[in-house]
Design brief:
Blueprint lengths: L1 H21 L152
Amino acid sequence: MLFAMLFAMLFGLLATSAAMAADPAADCPIRPRTSCLNGHFEDARLGGANLSGALLSRANFTGADLSGANLRHAALDSTRLAESNLSGAILASANLSRANLRYANLRGARLHDADLSGADLRGAVLEGADLRGAKLVNARLDGANLRGADVRGAQFAPDALAGADIEGCRGCQP
């Protein structure tokens, strides 16, 4: 009987370890200032999550729902956020340099003072987004929707918005 209990406990620990190895995100608690470099969150449902100050560099959030999430001051450099839903998310002062945000929904997101240098925003929806003071140097914005966005004080090359929909965008006109 004792042997059977020890075997069951050992098997349970091994199964848990195997599950965590198969899912790197299992080690990544969803909370402020968490550290989860290279984490896998594909198609995750994290709407409204508080990840302020989190270290999530090189993580994969492709297709994830982060609508209304708090990612203020988060490190998201080189992170994959393609086709993700970040509508209404708070990304103020976040580092999104070299992030892949292709076809992401950033409608109404707060990105003021965020670093988006070198980010790929092709086809992204930034309608009504607050990008005041954001760093968009070398960002790719071809086909992006910036209708009603506010980019006053943002840093970007004069031709960076060529090919983007800028109707009603504040600060988009030279």
